[in-house]
């Protein structure tokens, strides 16, 4: 029998100086209803390619703490897809439950009126208030203090098919999880007010308490453009030029990555950045 050669799979790419902690899952978390260390999902749709992953950070791995990030990718009928990323606040013991519930509620509470955009400026506020109410009901059912489930949330509702020559993406958020556009190798924030100061100050906003703080915007997703939705575990290292350029190289050129390749790319390592990291990328094709 011919010997089967096992290919060597590289460790996650180190950008800049090597981190202090090694990249390994570490002990299993003991927190109530802790999710898996890593989550990966995606879809190939007509005109859209979606890749998503959520990875527990080195700090949480080392200390046996749960991944506090969450994500969700779901089809809304035949014409739309919903994406959600959430980052449970590190100071709250049950925020991993809050992040997961916020993503579920984003899908369950999404009103039909949002599928075609914002009929009024209050639509996103009402939507996020419903998400917050679902989170509070969930916390009470679990016997958990509502404040301990605090989480950021970014939601996107995207046209699967082109409507009148364009594909629209309606984006809403509370907190510092964000969205960016990649086009021609350049990154642009979908929320223009995002800068270092904004990221630092908006971190205090979280669901369920700050539902009225929701921000909303609409972007077009043409072929050749990618939209990124991520938690600050990715947004913060992207403040460095080397990380931005490496991600642009991976995600702009050629064919979008396979699911395993996307997970490997998102697992890159940078010194001092050891938080959970979650990203969903959507390519217009």
UniProtKB/TrEMBL annotation:
SUPFAM superfamilies: PP2C-like (SSF81606). InterPro entries: PPM-type-like_dom_sf, PPM-type_phosphatase-like_dom. Residues 49-284 form the PPM-type phosphatase domain. Residues 1-40 are annotated as: Disordered. It holds the Pfam family PP2C_2. It comes from the Bacteria. This is PPM-type phosphatase domain-containing protein. It comes from Spongiactinospora rosea.
């Amino acid at each position: 029998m011919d010997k089967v050669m096992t290919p060597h799979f590289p460790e996650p790419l180190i950008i800049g100086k090597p981190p202090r902690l090694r990249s390994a899952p570490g002990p299993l978390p003991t927190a109530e209803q802790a999710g898996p260390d890593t989550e990966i999902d995606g879809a190939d749709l007509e005109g859209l390619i979606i890749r998503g992953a959520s990875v527990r950070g080195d700090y949480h791995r080392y200390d046996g703490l749960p991944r506090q990030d969450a994500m969700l990718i779901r089809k809304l009928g035949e014409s739309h897809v919903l994406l959600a990323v959430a980052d449970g606040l590190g100071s709250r013991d049950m925020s991993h439950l809050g992040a997961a519930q916020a993503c579920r509620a984003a899908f369950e509470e999404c009103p039909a009126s949002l599928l075609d955009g914002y009929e009024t400026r209050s639509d996103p506020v009402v939507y996020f208030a419903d998400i917050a109410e679902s989170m509070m009901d969930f916390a009470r059912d679990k016997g958990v203090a509502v404040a301990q489930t605090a989480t950021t949330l970014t939601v996107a509702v995207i046209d699967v098919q082109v409507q009148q020559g364009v594909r629209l993406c309606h984006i809403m958020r509370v907190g510092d999880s964000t969205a960016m556009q990649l086009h021609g190798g350049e990154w642009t924030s979908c929320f223009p007010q995002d800068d270092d100061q904004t990221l630092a100050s908006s971190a205090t906003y979280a669901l369920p308490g700050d539902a009225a703080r929701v921000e909303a915007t609409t972007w077009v997703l043409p072929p050749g453009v990618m939209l990124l939705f991520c938690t600050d575990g990715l947004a913060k290292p992207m403040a460095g030029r080397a990380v931005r350029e490496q991600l642009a190289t991976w995600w702009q050129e050629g064919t979008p990555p396979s699911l395993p390749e996307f997970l490997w790319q998102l697992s890159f390592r940078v010194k001092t950045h050891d938080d959970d990291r979650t990203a969903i990328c959507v390519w217009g094709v």
